[in-house]
Specification:
The protein is of the alpha+beta class and about 140 residues long. The protein has three helices and seven strands. It has helices at about 5-20, 55-65, 115-120; strands at about 40-45, 45-55, 75-80, 95, 100-105, 125, 135-139.
Amino acid sequence: MISVARPRLQLAFLFAVLLSACSTDTPNPSPSPSPAGTVVTFQVGEEQYRILLTDPADIEIARQLLAGEEAPRIPNGVIVRGSDGGVNTGYSWYIDPESVEFAEATMEVCDGLPSYVEDRTLTGDRFCPWAAEVIAIDE
C-alpha cells in the first residue's frame, strides 16, 4: 500500500522553504563564494599528500618552507574522512582547510604517514606528520 501523506508532507515543506525565500522581511544576501585556495603537496617519507590552504598566513608559511626558510614546519589539521579526498587525490580523506595550522611541535599521537590515516592505523581526529616537507605549491 502506497501512502500519499509523505509526498504531501514533502510538497508542503518545499512550499514553505520557497515561500520563506521570497519574503521581503529579511534581506537575502548572495552566498559567499567558496574560498579559493592554494594546494600544497607534502612529502612524508616515501609518501605524498595534499592540503588545501585558504588562510593567507598559512600559504605564506608554505612558501617559506618551500624556499628553505625558517618557519613552523609541521602541518596540523583535522582529518575529514569520506569517499572523496578532495585535493588529496588518491586518498579517501582530506584535511579540513579551516583547521590547518603550522606548528613547531605537536603531540606524537597525530604523527605518521598518510597511509596510516588511510588504513586507520592513526585513529585520532588530527594529522600532524613531523617529517612532512613542502615539495610543491599550486596557486
